[in-house]
Amino acid sequence: MNAPDHVVVELIRAGLTTREIREQTRADYSRIARVRRDHKLPVFGYRPPTRTVDEALALHTELHGDGHLRWTGPTRGRTPMLFAEGTRGSARAVLFRRHWGRDPLGYIRTTCTEHGCIAGAHLADDIARTAGLTAAEAIAYLVQRGASDWEIVRGLGTSTSRVSRVRRTLTQPTKQVR
Fold first, then answer.
1. Do residues 43 and 36 make contact, with C-beta atoms less than 8 angstroms apart?
2. How far, rounded to the nearest angstrom, does the alpha carbon of residue 32 sit from its chain's CA centroid?
3. What is the dihedral of CA 14, 15, 21, 24, to 10 degrees?
4. How far from 152 is each of 158, 161, 167, CA to CA, in Å?
5. What digits encode the pLDDT tens for the residues 33-54?
6. Residue range 91-118: average pLDDT?
7. In a 3-state reduction of DSSP, which class is residue 131?
8. Is the pLDDT confidence value at 175 over 80?
9. I need a surface site. Which of 17, 24, 95, 176 has the fewest CB within 10 A?
10. Residue 168: enclosing H or E segment and its boundaries?
11. Coil, helix or strand at residue 110
12. Res. 172: pLDDT tops 80
């Protein structure tokens, strides 16, 4: 026998989980969810403790010789995931921002040979991978990867006019010699 809605409401307010309410009242999950919505009642359950970014990094990283930093926490595929301050994101992006002082542009890759290293000094984005190129080559590289002019200006410390010149040379058709 299904219990009336007011009984389900009382059990929700008492802090019972959906499973416990279902066992006591034989109400199905969709009915319990509907009662919660209709009466604007919260869902109770396990909430992981909120950590600061520093606490989460201390918990899920370990030093691994010669400045390498290994991730020991949760991953999504091969991406280390950082859960901190009510948000989640790539641990590589957080460590990149801390080390380089700017947001990454494009993919973040490890530059050292240590497997799984996520030390900020060992991470490189599209801009950092342009090292060793001339300024025009670096701009062309980033333009071809879809970077905006402002991202290039901020990342390389160049001017918008220089980026525009390189962008124009890339879009001009080449002349054929007969």
1. yes
2. 33
3. -50
4. 8, 11, 11
5. 999 899 988 776 556 668 899 9
6. 89
7. coil
8. no
9. 176
10. helix 160-171
11. strand
12. no
DSSP letter assigned to residue 129: G
3 state SS of 137:
helix
Q: Is 162 helix (H, G, I), strand (E, B) or coil?
A: helix
Q: What is the rounded CA–CA span in Å between residue 3 and residue 23?
A: 11
Only one residue has tokens 């859960």, namely 83
According to DSSP, residue 170 is labeled: H
Element (H, E) at 63: strand 61-63
Q: What residues does 90 pair with on adjacent strands?
A: 81
Q: Which of 24-28, 45-49, 77-81, 93-97 has the lowest mean pLDDT?
A: 45-49
Take residue 81 and report the two structure tokens written for it.
Answer: 């995931």
Q: Give the span between the Cα atoms of 138 and 126, in whole angstroms.
A: 9
Contact 144, 130 (CB under 8 A): no
Distance CA(49)–CA(85), nearest Å, equals: 9
Other CB atoms within a 10 A radius of the CB of residue 97 amount to: 14
Helix ranges, 28-124 (H): 29-38, 53-60, 91-100
Q: Measured on CA atoms in the order 156, 161, 162, 168, is the torsion positive or negative?
A: positive
**60 near 116, Cβ under 8 Å?**
no
